[in-house]
Amino acid sequence: MIPAVDSLCELLDDETLGAKLAVTAVTVIAEDEPFVAATAIHGLVPLFESDDPYIKELAVQATVLIAHGSPASAIPAVEAFISLLDDDNAFIQHGAVIGIGWIAKGSPKAAVSAAEPLIPFLTMGDVAVQKTAAYVIARVAEHAPEAAAPAIDALVACLAAETPYVRKHAAEAIGALALSSPKDGDTAVKSLALLLDDEDERVREKAARTIATIAKGDSEYTRPAIDALITHLDASDPNIRELTVRTITEITKDAPRAVIPAVDHLVPLLGDETPVIQKSAVTAIAAIAEHSPEAAMPAVDQLITLIEGENVSIQEKAVRAIMPITEDY
After folding, report:
1. Which domains does the chain have, with CATH numbers?
2. What is the per-residue pLDDT across 275-319, written as a single tens digit (0 to 9) for each?
3. Statement: the pTM of the whole predicted model exceeds 0.85
4. Contact partners, residue 177, CB within 8 Å, separation at least 6
5. What is the rounded CA–CA span in Å between residue 321 and residue 300?
6. Considering all CA atoms of the chain, what is the largest pairwise distance in Å, rounded to the nearest integer?
């Protein structure tokens, strides 16, 4: 098959019917055997500038297919894809976004230069394009945050996008930027907190984990994170309560004193009808009590009730929580 592709590559330089036949054949091969078609990548990229719409579209399509199956092989096409983001042909424009997305999935660093040009696509085009743009910027933010930093405002706007995956990838990118740039931490925490009651569980989980990571990574944002989380502890949805208290518990592992303002809000959860919520609340209060017993005093009555209960696991955690509080009395 490869000798055949090599022969087709020679025809790609042909400005006549030969080029059309060759690019058509390479596209067909790329659908089933992208690794084989990858040998034609250096012949396909120049065709992105072809005046023939048929040749241009198929060259882009073939390269996207190669990027899907063999991202590393398509890296030479990154800059050419970027140049197509301003193309008047929506098919080509969208193909360029998707192609960059596949390359970023396999080699995030190769897509760094695409981060800023992709910003407009966070809020335009079809869902696949928006999702891909958000994904690429999120991956770039993890590996080269300075390149993705100009996208922060657009990413915040994406937290209200209709598509869950766009919201999820935007949350990932915002979190990565916050960890690399302290000035983005406040914006990140406040924006991500809005997603804690998102209708999509994956989005909620990503927002919560990101808030916890920011809170543990920079003490300046631990208190703002706790304040944001507290507002969701009385949510009517038990899934949101569980996620919120679990996130607070995660933060107590690194910053138990910073969680003290949450004690009064955690105490009611000791009587929650959902055992996993009770368990997380007890765990958080135990960590606080270990470092600041007096701060955990409001929880004593509820802890005693749990100790007298029938759930052995919760009993053990309640005993651990109450011991530092009562040892001086």
Report:
1. 1-110 (1.25.10.10), 127-192+202-218 (no CATH), 231-329 (1.25.10.10)
2. 999 999 999 999 999 889 999 999 999 999 999 988 899 999 999
3. no
4. 141, 145, 148, 149, 152, 155, 184, 188
5. 9
6. 94
